[in-house]
Amino acid sequence: MSESEGGVDPVTLEVVRNACIAVAEEMNANLIRTGYSPNIKERRDCSCALFDAGGEMISQAENMPVHLGAMPFSVAAAVEQFPPETLEPGDSVLLNDPFRGGAHLPDLTLVSPVFVDGAVVAYAANRAHHADIGGARAGSVAADSTEIYQEGLRIPPVKFASGGDVNEDVLSMILANVRTPDERRGDLRAQEAANATGRRRFTDLAEKYGDTLAPALEAVKDYSERRMRTEIESLPDGTYAFEDVLDDDGRGNEDLPVRAAVTVDGDEVTVDFAGTAPQTAGPVNAVFAVTASATYYAVRCVTDPEIPPNHGCYRPITIETPERSLVDPEPPAAVVGGNLETSQRVTDVVLGAFAEADVSRVLAGSQGTMNNVTFGGTDPRTERPYAFYETQGGGFGGRDGKDGMDGVHVHMSNTMNTPIEVLETAYPLRVERYELRPDSGGAGQYRGGLGLRRDISVRGHTATFSLLADRQRHAPYGLAGGEDGEPGAAYRLDAAGTARLAGKSTHDLPAGTTVSLRTPGAGGYGPPEERDPSLLAADLRLEKVTEAAARSHYGDDPVDAAVDLLDE
């Protein structure tokens, strides 16, 4: 920062910036601590952020990228519906409508104004993935939906609380449309508690800094913008294009292209998705907020991830999308998987385009899917409905100087797994097997990360099971001479034998049936023959790579050298 920013000294600016980040992080910690469902308490499928009086983001807790880049659109929709003059202290606005700033229906966003001396000075906001929001399938992540009306309760911006009192009519309407009302009530209370923390902490800041706070927030956004422009300027000017595909939409439409042309022009970048598939029948359409979120994330990855993530760092980025397309659909398109799967492919193609400009800044293709799993039915232990949802980790792409990580949630997903102990306690399910998939990472000078195998069986009841996954026909790509990762797969295991399941499909599973989920590995980076034998030896020792596969991909001489190291 310069010696004086907007009349505010640099030390004050840095203190204010970090204080705002701390507020968002404390909000998120409170949301996780008070959340009712394993989806929030354990998987941490939630995000928090602070916005200024104009609705521009000023800080965020570093959680779910797909939430954080899209949340400003929800805040804008809430402010448009309820301008500051219509609000009072203790109010909050709830919404999930993907066509009014949301992402998909399970993600409920709560926006709460912060008042000082009778005026709105900021907004505290959070987004949490609810394990069920109604719709045709338990878990509200239906692989067979064809319109948004099948995917759950669609909530435009509505007053959820007035003057600190929850609107019981709105709450009753929500709870009457979901399978697990107690869980939803608890998670909504946690969202309220998180925003209450944000209001309280930001009010303290406003009281401490007074008239200095507003110009300090503007200066912090300007600082992020300057740093982003400097980073973009370091890239070579030009237009760089990349294309990848989604396997299918679950409705028989296969190989759906996602195309991105990235134009670097001085200190600005334009990402144009012309040539991307039209919106499709299945639930993989990504609304513009999701496409923008994935694009912002990818640009941050190839510039400097340490740039403070706020409205300012997105100002130099322009996004262009074809109307009625896979990346900008119109109602009543089914969109639940757009947030989950198409967001990952948008990330892949934008990163792939940047690799044409400077491959050293980009990692190879990661697993490229969230591997969404839902189970639902009646819990035989309680005779009450349940809905279980989780995403599965996989391989993280190899990059210049480092192997990819194994079995992690990648890019637009930054959640954790549901611990086996919690899963088996909370739901009538059992985890039979949970391990890394050897040989699933793409070979390279730097190996791609490994995918996972997670086998889950149904206990004592017939369950509805839905799988919404991708990268089962098209592998994650390698870069700079690295090889592709191994695609994913899913199987049904029962007394009749083993049957492969389609990546986007719904099934009724009798008691005792097991679903085996095999997630994709990631692409490798750099020529395999240049891999350090000591790294290859470590792979063999840890059984991440079998000797037979190593000889096939790396050649006999490197493997012999690695084996000699193991024998020493």
Q: How does the helix and strand content classify structurally?
A: alpha+beta
Q: How confident is the prediction overall: mean pLDDT? A: 95
* Low-pLDDT regions: none
Record field, number of beta strands: 20
| Radius of gyration using CA atoms only | 24 Å
Give the termini separation. 54 Å
What overall form do the CA principal axes indicate?
globular
List the strand order in the largest sheet: 2-1-5-4-3-6-7
Most strands sheet: 7 strands, antiparallel
For this structure, the quaternary state is single chain
Number of helices: 14
**Into which percent range does the helicity of residues fall?**
25-40%
Strand content: 15-25%
Characterise the protein shown here.
The radius of gyration is 24 Å and the shape is globular. The strands form four sheets. A seven-stranded antiparallel sheet has the order 2-1-5-4-3-6-7, with helices on both faces. With 568 residues, it is of the alpha+beta class. α1 packs across α7 (213-233) and α12 packs across α14 (556-567). The protein has helices at 10-34, 38-41, 65-68, 71-81, 168-175, 181-209, 213-233, 288-302, 311-314, 336-357, 420-426, 533-541, 547-554, 556-567; strands at 46-52, 57-60, 92-95, 107-116, 119-129, 158-162, 165-166, 238-248, 254-265, 268-272, 317-320, 372-379, 384-390, 429-436, 452-458, 463-468, 489-494, 497-500, 504-509, 514-518. Among the domains are: 10-226, no CATH class; 363-530, no CATH class. The chain contains 14 helices and 20 strands. 32% of the residues lie in helices and 23% in strands.
